[in-house]
Structure formats: C-alpha cells, structure tokens
Amino acid sequence: MDERPHFDSRFLVGIEQVDNEHRRLFEIAGRVHDSLGADSATAASISRAAVAELLDYTETHFASEERQMEAAAYPKLEAHRALHRDLISQAREMEIRAETGDYHMPLELNRFIYAWLVEHIMDNDKKFGEFVARVAAGRYTGED
Ligand SMILES: [Fe+2]
Predict the structure, then answer these.
(1) How far is the CA of 123 from the centre of ligand 1 (A)?
(2) Which of 38, 49, 69, 97 is geometrically suited to a Cys-Cys bond with 74, CB 3.0 to 4.6 A?
(3) pLDDT by residue (tens digit) across 131-144?
(4) What's the 53 CA to ligand 1 centre distance in angstroms?
(5) 39 CA distance to ligand 1 middle (Å)
(6) What is the per-residue pLDDT across 111-125, written as a single tens digit (0 to 9) for each?
C-alpha cells in the first residue's frame, strides 16, 4: 500500500489522451509519494506543492475526460461526473489538512492517492474505454 504509484499496462483504458493524462497523474503522485514522511519544513513545503500540483492536474484531467465522454455521448457521463466531483472534494479536504500542517496524514494521503488512481481507473475509466471500443466496432447495443 505504500508502494510508489507507478503506471503500468494494467491501467490502460485504450484512449490515448486519457492514458497519457493518467501517466502524468501517476508521475505527479510518485513525486507526492517521495515527498511524504520527511519532517523538515522544506520537505513539508515540497510536499504541499506536489499535492497542489496533483490536485490541479486532476481537475484538468477530469474536465478533459468529461469532455471526451460528452463528445462520445457516453451514457454514464453523469454518474462518472459525480464520482469525479466526490474525489475532488475529498482531495481538497486533504489539501486543507496538508496546509494546516496536519502531518501525520502522509500514509492516509498515500492510501487515498492509490485508491483514487488505481481504483477509479480500474473500476470506472476502463468502462468508458470499453464503451468507446464497442461503439467503434459497431458492437454497442445500448444496454449500458
Ligand atoms: Fe474518470
């Protein structure tokens, strides 16, 4: 669980732009991971900057993913949007705690990043990739 986040082929959704953005999220999350647990003031400020970058890029990425879902007329767009909103609000709460120096949260944060990247991609983003592939292959029957 406190492995360094690392992108690998299991996470491929099959949509190039989404996959590239996920790669970048993992790269930033790796830096957040590396910055956690150190207790100097400098380390704490590096960590806060990395968390802020992760959250900013996540918002950019979610908006981009939702635009692609909209363009593809993805039937689960609204449910997916709700998941994104929920992740962002949890993440913002953590950011506030990071800013107020609540620094025994590194493990919790690390666990959250892992759940967020890994579970969200595996459980939800992949479904969008499958949908796009089925539509492209003319095998989408409208059942989900
Ligand atoms: Fe997503």
Answers:
(1) 9
(2) 69
(3) 999 999 998 887 66
(4) 18
(5) 33
(6) 778 878 889 999 999
